[in-house]
Amino acid sequence: MIRLTRDTACINGLSWRICIDRDRFDLLVACLASLNWPESPGTEDLTIFAVPGGHRMLVVHSTRRVQLRLSYLVEDAARPEVARLVGHVIERALVAHVAAESSDARA
Amino acid sequence: MIDLNASRSLLVPHDLTFLSGSPYVYHCHHYNLFHDQTVDDILGDELGRVVRIRAASSAMHDLLAGLTGASDSRTPAERIALGQWLVGAMGHGRLKLAVDASGGTAEGSWLHYSHSWSEKYGARVRRRSPVDAVAGGFAAAIAEVAFHLPKGSMSVEQTQCASMRAPSSAFVLRRDASRRSPQPVVDLMAFKAVLDQEHEQGQHEDEIASIAETLQGFMRGVAGDERGLVEAFGVYVTMHLGNYYNETAFEAMRATEADSPRLLSLAEGLFREAGHVCVFNTFSNILLSPEWEAINGPLVADPMRIIVGCLAIARGLGFGRWALQEYVPGERLIISTSSNYEAPFWVARYGHSERPRSFVFLGAALAMMVIATRMRLWEHPVLSQESYDALFRGEGLGFDAELVECQTTGARRTTAVVRAVR
Prior knowledge:
The complex is a heterodimer of chains A (107) and B (422). Chain A has 107 residues and is of the alpha+beta class. Chain A has helices spanning 25-34, 79-106; strands spanning 2-6, 15-20, 39-43, 46-51, 55-60, 65-69. Chain A has a 6-stranded antiparallel sheet with strand order 1-2-6-5-4-3, covered by helices on one side. In chain A, helix 1 packs across helix 2 (79-106). The model of chain A has no long low-confidence stretch (mean pLDDT 89). Chain B is an alpha+beta fold. In chain B, the strands form 3 sheets. Chain B has a 5-stranded antiparallel sheet with strand order 1-2-3-9-8. In chain B, strands 4-5-7-6 form a 4-stranded antiparallel sheet.
């Protein structure tokens, strides 16, 4: 459901963009909230989640942009894999969320 | 340690920023590395390093002496602790000093210059000379202030550098009574004495001022992490001392004027390019950041929006009150300022000049035109050395730029005109 691409940044491989179809953005936000990752101070339009491992997830609601910022402690070579693993956690949460919604709908 | 924000001041209405009376601005690692390399290219590695260490030491001495007076640091150990903390808070990395009044050693880890050099070039280039002159100068200043020594009385030598694949950076400090006294300080009072109370008004003024104010507020919350580095907007950012940039750049230009006047335009061109590097990397990364998007909405395909954003960023980073006088799409851009951070320093230290000297401002104006009209930032391009080279070092920029007036010559304001080249 999500696609992971490198986001604009000069520091190698730390910023990743999480893309999802526009009509599923609200679902993604609900999933992120359900993961119980602590929120850091942001702004009215910007939610920042602290992701386990020292990473951060930034969500700009008005533009539906989601950026994963990896911790600097992740070695250069491991950054794509760590980004993929965080993406996998989100993907699984999305699938579970969709499944739960379908189940609710059937009930 | 202390509340740094309590020591900040904004020179209204000029959008120039000061910390305990010392001028400061924010610059990213791309700019910092380019600036230092430019000084060394002009002066040579050896003299360049001496000038950079002296400028960093002098600027930090003023700042730390001011902050020490405002804090409760009464013993040498407390003043050393304050200095070490300050270096990290400003995003320059970690310094650990073991010194007395006669000298000693300092060890640096995660230092801004060597760490970012390694990150940017380390996989492609083997460095053969140390890069942490700023941290070395800061260490000397901390030792001087800690033991109430005269400014410039501690010499420093970098004995190992993380950019040269050492595990950390290391410095040896020695008391050196023979060192000549540094030049007089250029501080808030000196800026006030040089600048008019009149300030520049331009087009889209309300919007630029509003965004700049938001950005200034955002930057007040930016501080070094546990490494003493500031990682923001996809770059390493430093809160840096304007006196360092100005003293090193202008001493390099003055040496060129004295020794090789025919090369002066080449030296000025390099400092103009430093403005390109700044706008391409720092300004573009800010414009493309989620934080910017959350404050100002997404970038739209309109060069005017990029130019307005750039002028607000310049003010937000403490570069001065840059104002838009004219933009003719793809043809002409005129930016003026009653207060950049370069010209007041020149006038305060050297008096009026026959030449314009605000080359970072000039280069930044040109680069704003280039990124607004040729970069299509709204399509989120990759920012890389390759894309920089393609835009700024390829077949031609497509634009030329000129300082048609400059406060260093006694003019009331500084104005850069950027024109399309056919």
